[in-house]
Amino acid sequence: MKKNVILLLNFILFTFISLSINAQERSEDGFLNKFGVGVKLGTYGPGIDVHTSLTKNIKARVGLSLMSYTYTGDVDFTGHYTHKDYPTPIAIPGTISDFKFKFFNTSLLFDYYPMESGIFSLTAGVYLGDNSVKSIGKITDYEAIVTQYPEAEEFEIDGYTFKPYKNGSFDINIALGETIKPYFGFGLGRTIPKSKLGFKFDLGMIYQGMYDITSPNTEMDLNEKTESEDIDLPFSRDLLKWWPMISFGLNYRF
Q1: Are 157 and 241 contained in the same domain?
Q2: 41, 65 in Cβ contact below 8 A?
Q3: How many CB atoms neighbour CB 12 within 10 A?
């Protein structure tokens, strides 16, 4: 009986020592030794991340972000209707409004800390997902135009021919870049905090690539360049290729 008690005490002591050594080893940042979660708010919308350590200087993040936003401003345009019976083109005024942005992305990012215990990091990785903008165009006083020119079923804008719906509206859809989008930037804060809770600020650029413009109201390729620039979009076309990423998050370490 006494021998069994001694063996049991030795087993408990051995187990305690083993757990202590293991905990001490895991306290050092190594491959998958530490984990954390975070919430963030950025230019791709709000999101969540799961973090882990790869080495003492490199951390990894897997994230999900989404955003739905509507820009309600109006963009004026002037289209034209041409007909053989009219010597000059007829001006067709209208507006494009309700720019609806929809972003849905997952991400895989790697943070490299030049100083092991520092808060400055260099970040590289990829975002995977689809981003789009949908807008609605509307011809001003369309009923009056159709009444005056019954044969006016189509009009030109920015060099493209559109056939609006019966109420004078038409749709424009923009796919913002490719599904796979590389990211480069830098950050301040720890991906996996030294304490339980910490912050992370990211600033960088996402290369979205070429965008694609389509409309069910035309059979023409809207991505072809034209000589005129009658439509002034409320955002730069070059900005659609390079999307700025500004993000602030709160991270929790397990």
Answers
A1: yes
A2: no
A3: 10
